[in-house]
Amino acid sequence: DTGVSQDPRHKITKRGQNVTFRCDPISEHNRLYWYRQTLGQGPEFLTYFQNEAQLEKSRLLSDRFSAERPKGSFSTLEIQRTEQGDSAMYLCASSPGTGRYTEAFFGQGTRLTVV
Amino acid sequence: GESVGLHLPTLSVQEGDNSIINCAYSNSASDYFIWYKQESGKGPQFIIDIRSNMDKRQGQRVTVLLNKTVKHLSLQIAATQPGDSAVYFCAEGLVNTGNQFYFGTGTSLTVIP
After folding, report:
1. CB B99 within 8 A of CB B86
2. Tell me: the pLDDT tens digits for A74-101?
3. Residue B26 has what pLDDT?
4. What is the mean pLDDT of residues B75-97?
5. Strands A75-79 and A19-24
6. Are B100 and A56 inside 8 Å of each other by CB?
7. Between the CA of residue A112 and those of A4, A13, A88, A96, what are the distances in Å?
8. Is the Cβ of B106 closer than 8 Å to some Cβ of chain A?
9. Following DSSP, what letter does each residue of chain B receive, concatenated?
């Protein structure tokens, strides 16, 4: 296993368009996280899955954002009607186990540019 | 060299010197802390973690110190190497209940050969 994989690495889209990103976590990792990172800032939590259940959502995740993890493996993050303020790096992370928190492994991220 | 996080977000050190990166966290209830290293164009990479029942933890060339009284965390890197140049983030969270981590702004470390 080569780690957390995200696709695409870069996405340029026009304002108002919808975009979808994919994250493949490390095999058998139950937990999957989405974060957003803008230039010069630390990652900001968006949402978290335990297997296929979406357990936490940040207030940053507006109605235009939706995330799924249908089979408890890969996850998708969709942004509808993109705005210029959505331009950021979208990071996915996964961690093993349940209960007590364990180390999260991050992917390379998807850099979104809304023009 | 030493930084104070938000007030000095950049740190330059000579190769071979020790580096100290500081972080002030915000939530006194946080009981789990992680230091991440992020190189340009890459996702954050785990360096070392510490639980709130510890004051110090050592890894390979790195040491994390936790002072819960003043909500302060530091990362010490021994014998800093050019490959250590990156942005370093501290993150705080809750082990048993929270699965979202709050990251600081980060400190950019530059190692001068």
Report:
1. no
2. 999 999 999 999 999 999 999 886 655 5
3. 86
4. 91
5. antiparallel
6. yes
7. 18, 8, 5, 28
8. yes
9. -B--GGG--EEEEETTS-EEEEEE---TT--EEEEEEE-TTS--EEEEEEETT-SEEE-SSEEEEEETTTTEEEEEESS--GGG-EEEEEEEE-SSS----EE---EEEEEE-
Check: CB of residue B42 under 8 Å from CB of residue B26: no
pLDDT at B104 over 60: yes
Size of interface A-B (CB pairs under 8 A): 59
